[in-house]
């Protein structure tokens, strides 16, 4: 059981998120103050026990953040400011870095100190005794100032291999100085789970019998060997009750323990309580929100929360899932707020197709004649290079066309795309012209762009905007091209995937042709018609279900 300072509700394992500190050290990560406030709010909504919010002594932005975060009303998370032990040769009460740590005015502070003789001698250039004094005096000073202190034993597992007695002495020193948590850090991320198990057990034995010791052990693992998750579980199995990581796993070098993967494993596989009741089902939604704030994506193959986590492509798998969900799923996806997906391809069976079609139209069973027609159409298209497992919107429109549910919004009568190189000073390098038929009227529009697809997109939007002003909210977020058969060289067919978004919602469409512009046109038309369909449905309560799009007749 956890001792003094346990998180509200007393979960079996404390979840400590360091996205705003260690996560911010990941390559490409840069959080504004507003970003940090938004992430802090999201983590609190998820119900993590602790949020390590930054180092007020390292930069003005973190210092300003701690001033502004006081206005947030956090219900679950407690904030921690992060810093180091006092400098070599300085007094704790005169150390500027410790003063800035106090200025954050958080009740809880995290201080890291060296547990490795290599780092003491070669990095700090201090004596072993001086380093122990730095740990003890820093913690005692902060406790006198009314702070509850967590101690990060930096490089603990490497230090244990270098000089076992000294690494354990650093831990004991922190405990005797009143640390509330002692976190064993695999700072270089090179340890294996067995070494973490042995090291955690050794630290626990080291603390046994210390008079007045209320310190609980924690683990902070990095993923440089791809073992951060396994090492964290190993430490918890060995007696740790506090685990640190970042929600999405990003951080210094190869990142930290991914809490989005760890938390459900602990709760659903090990029976350990990590979050308040009902919060686990929000994991996927909040993870994606944090990813959006951080300007990154949740990897499709991420356990539990990724788009592929509960996707099924093989027909026999889909058939089995529909009979017994546990046959090919290790947990119910709804437990983590994710959903099951049946990927449509030539490998899929009638059961999977029927399941997807049932979401679009009631009363369509596996025996419905449309299922056979859809299956044959799907296989014929995929034989020609189409791929629908990554373009749900296009597949669903194929279904709607077979069932007679599709309503068109416009027709492209003709279009032309031209490229000029080099581009002139007063114009872009590509130009597009398009003629569309919309609501009984012809419309002609033209646009310039950085490339042919950009120009065509601009011209088509310009032609449609007068009829569908809601298109101003839509944008293309990604564009991928793949050559289907390289043996045909420049005459090969290409497959274009376009990802689009409007206010956070996203969808993917596909186009195939030997002409890359025409393939792009097919996917682009699908994308626009999908969005118009959803807008119409939202305003009238009618229309096709979410995730539909249009396949042009030329397909």
Explain what the structure shows:
- This protein has 555 residues and is an alpha/beta fold.
- It folds into 3 domains: 14-293, TIM Barrel (Alpha-Beta Barrel); 311-383, no CATH class; 411-540, Double Stranded RNA Binding Domain (2-Layer Sandwich), CATH 3.30.160.
- Helices cover 37% and strands 19% of the residues.
- It is built from 17 helices and 16 strands.
- It has helices spanning 33-46, 60-68, 96-103, 117-123, 128-144, 156-162, 164-176, 193-207, 228-237, 259-269, 283-293, 315-323, 350-358, 369-383, 392-402, 452-464, 516-540, and strands spanning 14-17, 50-54, 78-84, 108-114, 148-154, 181-186, 216-221, 242-245, 311-312, 341-342, 411-419, 430-438, 441-449, 475-483, 494-502, 505-513.
- The strands form 4 sheets. An 8-stranded parallel beta barrel has the order 1-2-3-4-5-6-7-8, surrounded by 9 helices. It has a 3-stranded antiparallel β-sheet with strand order 11-12-13. Strands 14-15-16 form a 3-stranded antiparallel β-sheet.
- Helix 12 (315-323) packs across helix 13.
- It is elongated and about 85 Å long.
- Mean pLDDT is 86; it is low at 1-10 and 540-555.
